[in-house]
Amino acid sequence: MKDREPDVDDSTAELDGTDATSDSTSDVVASAAAKRAARKTAPLTARDTGSRAPLILAVLLAGFVAATAFFGYQYFADSSGISDGARAEVSAVADDYATKLASFDYRDLNKNREAITAMSTSSFAAKYDEMVKALTEIVANGQGVATAKVSHSAVSSIDGDSATVIAFVDQKATNVVAPNGKDQPYRMVLSLKRDGDRWLVDDVQTV
Fold first, then answer.
1. What residues make up the domain containing 33?
2. What pTM was computed for the model?
């Protein structure tokens, strides 16, 4: 004969079950409410941010360009810690490099090539060589000719054997599409490295 199982207090079991169900229901309700709130808020925030982002970006870019063009040279020229001699030396190299880089003639694309290569670090000279090879046919077919000059430049930093210069370049280019010429301003950021007693360009970015 099997031992009789102990009686279970039905009222207690029912109460416990009710409490568990109540807690579970509360959790579900709270979770659902949180999800509804998140769904209402997140899309609104995304739409709001997405619609305003282009305007905000345009305003910031316009402000940056204006501030850089108007105040950039004076700000960097007054930067402390950079001697006039060092600034002049770095600026001269950067200005000459930017002018040569932005000038070309489809009839003689190698005119500035040797000079630019000599003014570059070995790694950047290799990149420049690849760029020339990639653009030679395009420039030749389009009969592209460009002249350039640096209107302003400013040394943003000199740190040991490294320097950075911002150059404002005015380029005028003609080709088969624009035979009368087109003026194109550029802002170039040139990174330089000292090699012995001279500065070499290690990277160029247009902004």
1. 8-78
2. 0.63
Looking at the fold, whether 63 and 89 belong to one and the same domain comes out as: no
Per-residue pLDDT of the chain (207 residues; tens, 9 = 90+): 445 444 444 444 444 444 444 444 445 445 555 555 445 444 444 444 444 555 555 545 545 554 554 445 555 555 556 789 999 999 999 999 999 999 999 999 999 999 999 999 999 999 999 999 999 999 999 999 999 999 999 999 999 999 999 999 999 999 999 999 999 999 999 999 999 999 999 999 998
Q: Is 2 a domain residue? A: no
Q: With the CA atoms of 190, 193, 198 and 200 taken in that order, what torsion angle do they form, in degrees rounded to the nearest 10?
A: -50
Residue 77 structure tokens: 């020229």
Question: What's at 82, amino acid-wise?
Answer: I
Spell out the residues 6+ positions from residue 76 whose beta carbon is closer than 8 angstroms to its own.
154, 155, 156, 166
The count of domains in the chain is 2
